[in-house]
């Protein structure tokens, strides 16, 4: 039964407690596999006692005294019959070319794997440990140590003989030794020592904590993390020691180096082996319950933990219970943990089984995520590390995710993932579309279908459009707007829409969609008809985009009724395509629309529609009187007699006044203002605009017997007509409203005019005086005369080369200089000279300001 169970376990390849993994939500840090092939055959008839690991191969020692060299897959490549009893330890140098072996019967062999030459010796007592110098292959480092009841150093001298030196003895059996660089660490019954090979000194002694444990049953585990950091595990205690250099001032008679314990803590179980993993520790535990409450199977199952060391404690990162072969029969001393420094490989050695633990890679991470149904995270991990994954494919993971979402009826999320997962695989796309059709969820996937350079067959898109047309008109319209017309057979969809319109002919959504389909099919006239029928806002965009002006010549009224402003702007912007005359003819029966068009035309250009200005007079009078007067003012082409006739017929006083004044009949215009409007302010304003004395006389004559008019004239006439003329003509005894205020205003205005004149005079005088002073200062400044100046008449240097000779120079205010003899005669005014240059240019003559003589 035991063999059958064992075979089942081997076939399953499971080494961790499955129930723990299934219940845990934390991802394991390591994965496990059994080292098989040649190892399985070896351990069927023998048992493993020790093993050492090199980057290129493995060396396995057995209880029957044999040493096997194995490749990484566990195939035996070489076999050495060393002894008939247990091999205690195997040591390799860094090159992997030399091996050291010791056995329980006292045999020690150190030789080259390719030469078999070296050290072969037998001792009277068991040799428990052996360690080669890491650089043993070099001629200068032919050293190794062995340990039984004492630690011996063997070193080959220049005579090619081995010289022996006792490094330590007297503290019981040496149970473990590790050599790193120049440091040798070993363990005996009392503790751990470190020997500095470079200084030939022992530098520390780390005592064993729990002395009650038998060293042979619970041996010490040693592991160098780097050249100066040693990890010690003994019983349930772990210590991390760092070798440091001692300061020169502290040396005295002490070694150059010392050891500092940077971390020390207790564990729950017994330690069988240690190995570093970055800044963490991999620890192999032998599980044994002191209370004996565990059953036999659980008590003997070894555990491999990853822990984070702290100064006085540790934090568990992960923990795996291992099911190695015949673990029920093993003790703590039967397990060993070896690691490969080149790779994160950890070998758990037991007498009948060897298990390899590896750091989980990205494929393993994805496996775990998929097992936990964390598809989103698995897909993201695969996309990030797609170059590094070997067993997985991004698309297959994505398909698994889509299947999972569909099973959970999250169809929208599944459809959204299709866009990312299916990519350019058209076959997969079509399969998914048909799957969504079978489950009645075409709407979910419709918005994510390819619609760019890569496209599905037209039948796929048509199938979806037909599905929407049966159940969702709005969704159908959205797809027609979003999908390019080239994706499907446009005619087939048009026919389908027309069939539905026969059942529902007034459906605006279907009509709008049909217009869009006609647009895609370049049947713009039909699309335009539908848009105009629906009064759709896109009708103007359709006309502009496809230049449909020839199609709207008979539809101008419809466009105007829909949106006057947009229609007029479009017509005016495209006069070269639809002439003004054509528009006027079309709008002839709709004068209100014609007025809107001609009004905007006139606003843009006063001359373009000049032949319609006569007609516009009546249109303004009928539909837009506020703009009639501005039109009459700005137009130079409308007939004044016709305009006057229309305005008089409709009794438009203000417009009639303007026309009369423009035709030169200002008296009649003023009469209408005074008689029909009775607005003295407008009459005064009109008289001011015309600035005609006869009009003022008529205004005064008309107002002289009307007190309110006299008041208005008194308040406003002062700046244009002498108020005395009006005052003298006022009849005695006539009561005039606010006469006193009006007279006060006249006097105030007169006084204000006087003050303004005086102020202007003062400013003028002050400015004149300031400018005169400035000119005087300018003319009084000195003028520099040197060798660089020339005479403006003879163009020779103004100053003579010999300054000792007499000379005479004249300098004018304009800065022109002359020799005195070069100047013409002074003219009619004796003693007064003028600059010839400035006089010729009419810039005003200047008199000489300086005459230099010597």
From TrEMBL:
Region (Disordered): 1-31
Protein origin, superkingdom: Eukaryota
Any one GO BP annotation for this protein: cellular response to starvation
Protein keywords: Autophagy, Cytoplasm, Cytoplasmic vesicle, Endosome, Golgi apparatus, Lysosome, Membrane, Metal-binding, Protein transport, Transport, Zinc, Zinc-finger
Start-end of Acidic residues biased regions: 15-26
GO cellular component: clathrin-coated vesicle; cytosol; early endosome membrane; Golgi apparatus; HOPS complex; late endosome membrane; lysosomal membrane
GO molecular function per UniProt: zinc ion binding
CDD domains assigned to the protein according to its UniProt record, in alphabetical order: RING-H2_Vps41 (cd16690)
Keyword tRNA processing: no
Residue ranges annotated for the RING-type domain, each copy included: 791-839
SMART domains (UniProt xref): CLH
Record's bilayer topology term: Peripheral membrane protein
Matching InterPro entries: Beta-prop_Vps41, Clathrin_H-chain/VPS_repeat, TPR-like_helical_dom_sf, Vps41, Vps41/Vps8, WD40/YVTN_repeat-like_dom_sf, WD40_repeat_dom_sf, Znf_RING
Family: Belongs to the VPS41 family.
Role according to the record: Plays a role in vesicle-mediated protein trafficking to lysosomal compartments including the endocytic membrane transport pathways.
This protein's name: Vacuolar protein sorting-associated protein 41 homolog
